[in-house]
Design brief:
Elements (H helix, E strand, L loop, with lengths): L3 H41 L9 H11 L2 H19 L5 H11 L5 H36 L1 H5 L2 H15 L2 H11 L1 H8 L5 H20 L3
Helix pairs in contact: 1-3, 2-3, 3-5, 4-5, 4-9, 5-10, 8-10
Length: 215
């Protein structure tokens, strides 16, 4: 039997497998993002739409005594919004990491931990932002001067966000987000894989947060 034709086919077969694997990966991530948007659309038209609005969360807890339920639903909604809006920005990083780990038997777990770390950063930011907003409202209710000058809070937040846009930290974070290949090569050590994958996602999430929180 002549093995030469078989040998010539093998590279093309391997390439087709890699292409199919890449398409399956991108299709899965795209489906997840689309599902998140669909859930948000349906949620926004349901009787529970108010739980997506952090401005009403405090009032829900005060009126109905259901603060735990309201907080849980708000956190869930925030996570879904993060998947819908921020996960697309990580596709280049996820694709590079998928290629880097595609020969590992635990590659799906590693990819899942990376995504978990990334989403965890945004979830933590969402909770912190809500607590800060709630605290400001509580302080405003106790201050007659702030009640007489409510524009101060909005102006202060806009000033802080605007100043951050021109800071060195903002551009450092932006440089990290724009270069996913160098970011992976810098942070991926290849040992203690599960921990490393989780922290890779956390680090990337922190840099993306540094770019986008003020928007």
């Amino acid at each position: 039997m002549n093995s030469k034709p078989i040998a010539s086919i093998l590279p093309h077969f391997a390439a087709s497998l890699r292409s199919a694997d890449r398409k399956a990966f991108l299709g899965s991530i795209t489906a997840l993002i689309a599902l998140a948007w669909l859930v948000l659309w349906a949620w926004g038209r349901s009787p529970y739409a108010r739980y997506l609005n952090h401005g009403e969360l405090g009032e829900i807890g005060r009126d109905g005594g259901a603060l735990f339920l309201a907080t849980t639903l708000y956190t869930t909604g925030w996570t879904i919004m993060t998947v819908a809006m921020m996960l697309p920005a990580t596709l280049p990083l996820l694709e590079i990491f998928r290629r880097l780990t595609r020969r590992r038997p635990e590659r799906l777990q590693l990819l899942g931990l990376l995504i978990l770390g990334y989403l965890g950063v945004w979830l933590g930011f969402g909770v912190a932002a809500h607590v800060a907003d709630w605290t400001l409202h509580e302080l405003a209710e106790r201050s007659s001067w702030i009640q007489a000058n409510p524009w101060v809070i909005g102006a202060g937040v806009l000033l802080l966000a605007g100043a951050f846009q021109f800071s060195a930290l903002k551009y450092r974070c932006l440089d990290k987000c724009r270069a996913p290949l160098s970011f992976v090569m810098e942070h991926w050590r290849g040992h203690r894989d599960y921990r490393n994958a989780l922290f890779l996602g956390i680090h990337h999430g922190l840099f993306c947060l540094g770019c986008c929180w003020a928007l």
